[in-house]
TrEMBL record, chain A:
The keyword Cytoplasm applies. It catalyses: beta-D-fructose 1,6-bisphosphate = D-glyceraldehyde 3-phosphate + dihydroxyacetone phosphate. The keyword Cytoplasm applies. One of its GO terms (cellular component) is cytoplasm. Pathway: Carbohydrate degradation; glycolysis; D-glyceraldehyde 3-phosphate and glycerone phosphate from D-glucose: step 4/4. NCBIfam families: FrucBisAld_I. Its EC number is 4.1.2.13. One of its GO terms (molecular function) is fructose-bisphosphate aldolase activity. It is found in: Cytoplasm. This is Fructose-bisphosphate aldolase. GO terms for biological process: glycolytic process. Keywords: Cytoplasm, Glutathionylation, Glycolysis, Lyase, S-nitrosylation, Schiff base.
TrEMBL record, chain B:
It is found in: Cytoplasm. PROSITE patterns: ALDOLASE_CLASS_I (PS00158). One of its GO terms (biological process) is glycolytic process. This is Fructose-bisphosphate aldolase. GO terms for cellular component: cytoplasm. Its main location: cytoplasm. One of its GO terms (molecular function) is fructose-bisphosphate aldolase activity. It comes from Rubroshorea leprosula. It catalyses: beta-D-fructose 1,6-bisphosphate = D-glyceraldehyde 3-phosphate + dihydroxyacetone phosphate. InterPro entries: Aldolase_I_AS (IPR029768), Aldolase_TIM (IPR013785), FBA_I (IPR000741). The keyword Glycosyltransferase does not apply. NCBIfam families: FrucBisAld_I.
Length: 357, 357
């Protein structure tokens, strides 16, 4: 095969397939210390380790919520944290059949000579780090590449840099037993229409899969985390069914059937939007050889965060809010979401211009 | 979309989907005058137009055979030929719901500086030619690109030349209403094992689909005509189930679900081998987003040719032999072939080293 079949091949295939279980999805709880700080400050909570620990414990111990998840992406700090009772978070997840994952990139840097386009760093000692994460219980990883739409963007240079970066990261993960989630995010920022987003997404995904092939990545042991295809943030919104059609068409044109699952990022969509769009995709009557699920950060945690407000007495209510979103998205992966689990909070747009993680 | 959606888009999609109808396949009867000369010579028949016409009339008027075909690829001369009764072959096909297709390439030429690797010519006035063929009733086209396996082959240059050639041919076809069959044949010649063939096939297909994306080809309006993944011609044979597994895995890893159908070339395989392999693929219990069918030349006509021997009195028997292979392959596309329609003729290897069309 042109794919590298190393000692972890069977395990990678098994884990990727499990994460792609219909009815389940991923909680992206891998906000870096800086990013989680912004979330905490939005609810007037101090960005100290105990508060970061408290938030994640709230999420991971939400009664029944973990049933709807197949994986949780963690930031390095969280991988080694415990509950207040002293149980490692990783064990909490494992006991509930949730696979721990780890964010391994180290953020983006600008590419000189471009108009603010970026590439992603994090390659130094990546293999060794992956080995350590594997020892700590992680079985998948995530690396976010970012492209933007503009008059001259994304440039061929940015596309190639990010596609090559994703492919290199992916094969290093596989060498070390971690299923790589491949995330080529095309930002929503801009006034372009949905067709433009579709065209760019298709070009980017084609480049990504060519690069993965070049680097001998075993597709059966990967997952894809793409943007949904939507109009730009400054353009009029369209119905979920339209987003579903453009998105699934783009994926059908670029993502080989060997990939077991596609787990969408939510970008700046509100909790409810993200769920409705995912639901519409799963209702679409067209053959999809990969499962369509979620890997949501903000779109799973927003109401939960606001309900918690950093207060112990709100934990139970916040956990209920979290369960509501988990269940809603689980239903959406089966095309069975009937809406209405939205309070005002769930409909709040989470779009932030030029959002930096 | 990144795909070019011109005035023929809906028609292309409809025709591609029809050709990919389960239970049907393509007869490749597009042998050039030189090539058909070799076939005729093998049965001691003179290579004159009336004999070429007689052979094709035999095939196209075989009772019930056309029921198993969705398309026939023709050489230019044949596109304009008629039955002895004066009915254009194109009409005979159309009346039987068989879509006429046309070979549009002009053979291969060697690439300087390589070890006998080739690229395909035929671009001059290709658009205008396609328009003419469309007027004459053709609705799909075929262009054969050839790669070989060797110590340093296929080279990156050969892969790129052929992938780019296929993509350019494909978009020109689509601009002019013809569904392009994309044929990147990796020759069987050699002593390599099936793993090597798989690796090369995957690398080639990945390059082809990247090129198709670069050239804005509408995948839903194309078909793929690949080689099956097999050991080299000088290597020990393997079971159909093994060929099926390696082939479908390779396709899974490279061919986007938007492609409606895959129609295999038979290469040097005997009629029976080709049918058994196709059958095994369709029996494979794995999700396939495209149909798997045939576009056979030699593997559909060999016994027929030998039975005919150029003699009018043998026509009826030859037509029965042809129907037999059509039905066998039709069953194979449904995974329902039970074998045994092999006479000695059907098991004859059709492998010719360094085969040139």
């Amino acid at each position: 095969m042109s794919a590298f079949v190393g000692k972890y091949a069977e395990e990678l295939i098994k884990n990727a397939r499990y994460i792609a279980t219909p009815g389940k999805g991923i909680l992206a709880a891998d906000e870096s210390t800086g990013t989680i700080g912004k979330r905490l400050s939005s609810i007037n909570v101090e960005n100290i380790e105990s508060n970061r620990q408290a938030l994640r414990e709230l999420l991971f111990t939400s009664p029944n919520a973990l049933l709807h998840l197949s994986g949780v992406i963690l930031f390095e700090e969280t991988l080694y944290q415990k509950t207040c009772d002293g149980k490692p978070f990783v064990e909490v997840l494992q006991e509930n059949n949730v696979i721990p994952g780890i964010k391994v990139d180290k953020g983006t840097v600008e590419i000189a000579g471009t108009n603010g386009e970026t590439t992603t760093q994090g390659f130094d000692s990546l293999g060794a780090r992956c080995q350590q994460y594997y020892k700590a219980g992680a079985r998948f990883a995530k690396w976010r590449a970012v492209l933007k739409i503009g008059p001259n963007e994304p440039s061929e240079l940015a596309i190639q840099q990010n596609a090559q970066g994703l492919a290199r990261y992916a094969i290093i993960c596989q060498e070390n037993g971690l299923v790589p989630i491949v995330e080529p995010e095309v930002l929503t920022d801009g006034s372009h229409d949905i067709k433009k987003c579709a065209a760019v997404t298709e070009i980017v995904l084609a480049a990504v899969y060519k690069a993965l092939n070049d680097h001998h990545v075993l597709l059966e042991g990967t997952l894809l985390k793409p943007n949904m295809v939507t109009p730009g943030s400054d353009s009029p919104k369209v119905a979920p069914e339209v987003i579903a059609e453009y998105t699934v068409t783009a994926l059908r044109r670029t993502v080989p059937a060997a990939v077991p699952g596609i787990v969408f990022l939510s970008g700046g969509q509100s909790e409810e939007e993200a769920t409705l769009n995912l639901n519409a995709m799963n209702k679409l009557d067209v053959l999809k050889p990969w499962t369509l699920s979620f890997s949501f950060g903000r779109a799973l945690q927003q109401s939960t965060l606001k309900t918690w407000g950093g207060k112990k007495e709100n934990v139970s209510k916040a956990q209920k809010a979290f369960l509501v979103r988990c269940k809603a998205n689980s239903d959406a992966t089966l095309g069975k979401y009937t809406g209405g689990s939205t309070g005002g909070l769930a409909s709040e747009s989470l779009f932030v211009k030029g959002y930096k993680y």
